[in-house]
Specification:
Blueprint: E1 2-4, H1 11-18, H2 33-46, E2 50-55, E3 60-65, E4 88-95, H3 103-112, E5 116-123, E6 126-139, E7 142-147, H4 158-174, E8 185-191, H5 195-208, E9 210-217, H6 231-244, E10 248-251, H7 257-266, E11 271-274, H8 275-286, H9 290-304, H10 336-366, E12 371-376, H11 382-390, E13 407-412, E14 418-423, H12 433-438, H13 440-447, E15 451-457, H14 463-477, E16 484-489, E17 504-505, H15 514-526, E18 530-536, H16 541-550, E19 552-559, E20 562-569, H17 571-581, E21 586-588
Parallel strand pairs: 1-3, 4-5, 8-9, 8-10, 10-11, 12-14, 12-15, 15-16, 16-17
Antiparallel strand pairs: 2-3, 2-4, 5-6, 6-7, 13-14, 18-20, 18-21, 19-20
Length: about 600
């Protein structure tokens, strides 16, 4: 949809302008010259300013027509805190040919915290040049503004200006780190399950950046189809939100489009979110890799598609705040056809990246290096354990979903040999199906591992419940039959030891129990590969090539009898070698 001053403009021209929404720009490109040429042509035709809002992932979010000398610049944020960069850049035209940014443009950049503000001068329907501005760190309570020179649109340093946005993100964040709780969105929690489930919802809200100001637990066997908790209780909730000045209400279960729409009407403009949207928001904030961002966007699209009936506060394209972060939740003007088209494009990109991972995995399998995957409830300490075993230096925070993208590191065993340790995304109760589907390629690392380390938080009162959730998710992924090692982490914070026969007790933080864990991993892997010495006569050079191709060769020594090869072998390969060279040529070292 085209916004702003459309008076006197032909419907056919507006339809051409609407095609801008179908553009998918590269995340590495600030503004393609072809797009600027099109904007200049439209501006020359109607003699009015045109603004285009572009998300950081390259989606066109808004097209607005202004007057001859001005265009309404909307306040649009995809991040929860309006003091941080909005993750949206504004590019607009200046009829008359002057590409220099005006004082109004600069003040809008500061007030709305755009990623960048850019102006394109237009004369006779062609661009005369472009100037961009980026925010810097706060000086005297005001963000500095960094202006570029006016340059031809064909000479934009695309990657350089995107890097300027990244630097601006860091500089602006320095001034936000001291923000108080009062500046955070005020969230009211509602659930039907239990106080335990609401406690976890509160942790999710805190991770997303909200301050919890109240909660309501309504005991019902199943949600009300119209309002989730019943009309009377919904009216009571509205009064509670007014009394506590809540900005948003977060429900502990997934809402239907009808429920969301009805609740927004009853709550009089308070933003309505459900547990799934909250988790998607956290994922959108924490996804770092290209694949991670694509997976989050796909999950957001899959979540929104059946909820287009809503189009309310939480799904507003101008709303901002928690639940509106990321590229996937702001394009409500797209009809179902466009959303499905975008989902298809995302799946193809994710499949392509998954194919690259499959090639890397095939190379690992060729080298016969066993794989151990860390799985467990979110915030159980998996990343801390990865760092302790491998020295990886991966970010480990006391927050939910600190790790989204799989991290793979090599770990040496004390008895010789090595394995690859994979850190995966944490699980959680009521894990959204859209996330499981979108992150299928990432979760394959756990599916295809040789051994699973199930890491549990020993300091949690919900230890057994969380472990059951992990087993349920693994079963849904088809990994229930994988060899497993149960690990109770954070024993340095435990009051009393858990009654869990067979589980290993460790502290990834202090290092306690890690030697026993490595020994247990070694014993488990020996069922897959064992350390052996094979004496290959010089006349059997083909067997030496076979060992290098199918075994993990640890070392070689040359003697009169032949080549003594130390390697990790599985039982099948060992049998083939013994059949060719004789049983005396092979000696197990473990």
């Amino acid at each position: 949809m085209i916004y702003g001053n459309k008076e006197g403009i032909r419907d056919s021209l507006l339809a051409q302008m609407e095609a801008l929404y179908d553009l998918d720009l590269s995340a590495e490109v600030f503004a393609p010259p072809e797009l600027l040429d099109v904007l200049a042509a439209f501006t020359g035709t109607i003699n009015r300013e045109i603004s285009v809002y572009i998300s950081r992932s390259g989606s066109v979010l808004d097209v607005t027509i202004g007057g001859l000398n001005s265009v309404e610049l909307k306040d649009m944020h995809l991040r929860r805190n309006s003091r941080r960069l909005s993750m949206v850049r504004c590019i607009h035209t200046h009829p008359g040919g002057n590409p220099q940014l005006s004082d109004v443009d600069i003040s809008s950049l500061r007030a709305m915290h755009f990623d960048a503000m850019a102006a394109v001068g237009v004369l006779n329907g062609r661009p005369t040049g472009i100037q961009a501005a980026f925010l810097g760190e706060v000086v005297g309570g005001v963000n500095r503004v960094l202006l570029t020179d006016v340059i031809p649109t064909c000479k934009i340093p695309q990657r350089g200006w995107m890097e300027a946005i990244e630097r601006a993100d860091t500089d602006v964040l320095k001034g936000v780190s001291t923000s108080t709780q009062e500046e955070r969105e005020r969230a009211f929690l509602v659930g039907l399950d239990s106080e335990r489930s609401l406690d976890e919802l509160a942790r999710l809200a805190d991770t997303a950046g909200a301050a919890v100001v109240g909660r309501m637990l309504q005991r019902k066997s199943k949600p009300d189809t119209a309002t989730y908790l019943g009309s009377g209780k919904a009216d009571e909730l509205s009064l509670e939100c007014q009394a506590r000045e809540a900005d948003l209400v977060i429900f502990d279960d997934e809402l239907t489009g009808v429920q969301m729409h009805n609740l927004e009407q009853i709550l009089h403009g308070v933003k309505v979110l459900d547990r799934t949207a909250l988790i998607l928001d956290i994922f959108a904030q924490r996804a770092q890799s290209r694949e991670g961002r694509l997976q989050v966007e796909l999950a957001q699209m899959a979540y929104q598609l059946p909820r287009l009936i809503g189009k309310g506060v939480a799904m507003s394209r101008l709303g901002g705040g928690i639940g509106t972060r990321g590229p996937g939740e702001t394009r409500l003007e797209m009809d179902r056809r466009r959303i499905r088209k975008r989902m298809g494009d995302l799946r193809r990109e994710i499949d392509a990246l998954g194919s690259q991972r499959s090639l890397r995995r095939a190379r690992r399998e060729k080298n016969k290096v066993p794989v151990v995957a860390l799985v467990g409830y979110t915030n159980a300490g998996k990343s801390t354990l990865l760092n302790a075993l491998s020295g990886a230096g991966v970010l480990a925070e006391d927050k939910l979903f600190a790790t989204l993208d799989p991290v793979i590191r090599t770990v040496k065993l004390p008895t010789g040999g090595e394995f690859l340790l994979v850190d995966t995304v944490g699980f959680i109760s009521k894990l959204p199906h859209t996330l499981v589907d979108a992150f299928q390629s990432t979760l394959e690392e756990a599916l295809l591992a040789d051994v699973l380390l199930i890491v549990s938080d020993g300091s949690s009162d919900e230890l057994l419940h969380q472990h059951d959730v992990v087993l349920e998710v693994l079963a849904s992924l088809g990994a229930a039959d994988k060899p497993k090692i149960d690990v109770i982490n954070k024993i340095d914070r435990m009051q009393t030891p858990p009654q869990w026969p067979g589980a290993l007790e460790i502290s990834a933080k202090t290092g306690e129990g890690l030697d026993d864990l490595l020994s247990a991993i070694g014993r488990q892997l020996r069922g897959i590969q064992r350390r052996a010495r094979v004496t290959v006569p010089y006349a059997q050079g083909g067997m030496l090539s076979l060992l290098h191709e199918e075994a993990n060769v640890l070392g070689e020594e040359y003697s009169d009898a032949g080549v003594s090869v130390e390697a990790m072998l599985d039982e099948q390969l060992a049998g083939r070698i013994a059949a060719r060279l004789g049983s005396d040529a092979l000696a197990w070292l473990e």
